[in-house]
Amino acid sequence: MLTLHPARLLFTITLLTGALIALSSSSWFTAWMGLELNLLSFIPLISSKSNLYSSEAALKYFLIQALGSSIILASAPALLLLSMSPNLMILSALLLKMGAAPVHFWFPSVMQGIGWLQCIILMTVQKIAPMLMISYLVTSGTASIMFLSSILSSLVGGLGGLNQTLVRKIMAYSSINHMAWMLAAIFVNTPLWANYFLIYSIVSSSVVAIMHSQQIFHFKQASNLTNQSTLLKISMLFSLLSLGGLPPFLGFMPKLMIIQAMIANGFGVWLLVLLFSALITLFYYLRITMMSMTLSSPKTKSTTLTPFNSLLGSISFINLTPLLTPLIIFLPF
């Protein structure tokens, strides 16, 4: 049974509070304070005595986030002494804090050293404040940096996951690829980013919930799902295809809105790179699902079906909601 330690509950509350402070702040200094509170609350959450690599991951995360925070603070004297625009320095620091390319190298290794529950926090909650702060920096002077980071993130997220056999690293490169779409959404139309991020959080949480419940960390462990219920296997297939943005699943809807907005604004080359990388991510998602659907493993007592697995499989069918939307016209209200 899952129990939440009081200290972990406290740090979870302060983590969310730090993100809210950064979101609602009216000055960069207050936003920086919110990011620091968010950082210092996340470090104890990823530290675990049962995981030997968690201390290394916590130290890497702390050093990278401290470097990003120092760059944000250094933008103030750069403005006063050198009369430089602080926007480029702040944007670079926020890209570093999120793990977007070309400053993404810390992100897969940190993901590999923490548990699945901490992974979903790192992929979703920890990106809310930096992403919204980036939306304040969309100017003609920062356009080239955002374009370059989005292109590199899409290529790194697509190509980086091809030679991986560890599922957490695959999810890390997947997150980098989705950051490319979110940066494009921020540049084209900020409300599109909120829609994309919300649906991405739902879909990635459904994937991580299945991986966490079955304790899948490697490709070979995915074959253990062959002895689980058919519902659980199909739900993992739907969740991964939705995460890749394949129609008619839920993950395709925000991509479709971004595609329409980018075509309307004339960003055809940018869009082609994003679509090319999305096809590559679909390939390595299919590698995981084919492993669970085609290979067999010996039956053990640990692979017996539980009511929780059935509930989890049913919840994951939220990815099929776009197929149900035409039925809304038959509602009496």
TrEMBL record:
Membrane topology qualifier: Multi-pass membrane protein
Localization per record: Mitochondrion inner membrane
GO MF annotation: an example: NADH dehydrogenase (ubiquinone) activity
Catalytic activity: a ubiquinone + NADH + 5 H(+)(in) = a ubiquinol + NAD(+) + 4 H(+)(out)
Residue ranges of every copy of the NADH:quinone oxidoreductase/Mrp antiporter transmembrane domain listed in the record: 25-79, 86-281
Transmembrane segments: 7-23, 58-82, 114-138, 144-163, 231-250, 262-286, 307-331
Gene Ontology biological-process entries: mitochondrial electron transport, NADH to ubiquinone
EC number(s) given by UniProt: 7.1.1.2
Keywords: Electron transport, Membrane, Mitochondrion, Mitochondrion inner membrane, NAD, Respiratory chain, Translocase, Transmembrane, Transmembrane helix, Transport, Ubiquinone
Major subcellular location class: mitochondrion
Pfam families: Proton_antipo_M
Recorded GO CC terms: mitochondrial inner membrane
PANTHER family per the UniProt record, alphabetical: NADH-UBIQUINONE OXIDOREDUCTASE CHAIN 2
Similarity field: Belongs to the complex I subunit 2 family.
Protein's job: Core subunit of the mitochondrial membrane respiratory chain NADH dehydrogenase (Complex I) which catalyzes electron transfer from NADH through the respiratory chain, using ubiquinone as an electron acceptor. Essential for the catalytic activity and assembly of complex I.
Protein name: NADH-ubiquinone oxidoreductase chain 2
Species per Swiss-Prot/TrEMBL record: Bitias brevis
Encoding gene, per UniProt annotation: nad2
